[in-house]
Amino acid sequence: MNVRSVAIDESVSTVFPPERLQHALEDVVDAATVDATTDSLDSYDAVVTLAYHEEYLDAVDWIHSIQTGIDRFPLDDLREHDVTLTSSTGIHGPAIGETVAGYMLSFSRRLLPAVKAQTRREWSPPEWDEAFTLTGEQVCIVGLGALGKGIVDRANGLGMEVVGVRRSGEPVDGVEEVYTPDELHTAIRDARFLVLAVPLVEETRRMVGAEEFDLLDDDAILVNVARGPVVDESALIAALESGSIAGAALDVFETEPLPEDSPLWEFENVLVTPHCAGFTEDYYRNVAGIVRENVENIERGADLRNHIV
């Protein structure tokens, strides 16, 4: 595979201006911004993208996803057409970690209800026993890859007790106890915060539902920065309505954008963000770093970073 020209798909504009990435790559390859839904890709060797388009299969040799998750890409089709796929695993940990820390602080320090009261011009201090500190509280992080480790580091810095779930069950620095997925119920039982940071695969689809919400204490808070379908959304809504959990911070949803008629908009104890937990002004620079490294790897015949297929 030779890579002389790279297309930057317009879909990345959800996260950063494609021209920024284009300029960051121009000293190593010919780069141009394209709209894969209308423009021909025949003159390009590779594409950097957020979205997937079938046109990629017969046009390019290499697809680079700006996300960590690759659930939108048809891996079998890519193999059949001999198209290489790489991801941006490893660049999102700090941003995701800080976002999750912000979510948890919003609940512990009662910032979410304060902001909502401010929009109503209400002077509404919390009850004496509503606010708490994160020090000593337990957080269970399900998924201890690059995203999860970014969360672990921030939770440790806040003095929290950190447990986690990992497919291998192998120890992770900063995590007091690591469980395997079949021990999920044991792992989450004492968690004040249940944080989901797993990829969306068949094994993780709806891994948290009614049974899991019943196991949590009624002061527990769900945080989802994984993918929407990892949670049974109807079961989550039922748990919030019944008060069997204390709240949720959600960056991802079964349907995105979150429909206007979703009940999740209405809960006072739900923090909704628009799938932006990994956003940072350095996003395009971080993606460019991986793409540049892999262009060099291809030239040297070395293994690709974050090679999926």
Short description:
The protein is α/β, with parallel strands linked by helices. It is 30% helix and 16% strand.
Largest sheet: 7 strands, parallel
Low-confidence stretches: none
- Total number of β-strand segments? 12
Radius of gyration: 21 Å
Features:
alpha/beta, seven-stranded parallel beta sheet, 309 residues, 12 strands, five-stranded parallel beta sheet
Describe this protein's structure.
This protein has helices spanning 18-25, 56-59, 75-80, 93-108, 111-119, 146-157, 184-188, 210-215, 233-242, 283-300; strands at residues 5-9, 30-34, 46-49, 62-65, 84-86, 138-142, 161-165, 177-179, 193-196, 221-224, 247-250, 270-272. It is an alpha/beta fold. The strands form two sheets. Strands 8-7-6-9-10-11-12 form a seven-stranded parallel beta sheet. Strands 2-1-3-4-5 form a five-stranded parallel beta sheet. Strand 6, helix 6 and strand 7 form a beta-alpha-beta unit. Helix 1 packs parallel to helix 10 (283-300). It starts with a strand and ends in a 9-residue tail after the last helix. The model has no long low-confidence stretch (mean pLDDT 97).
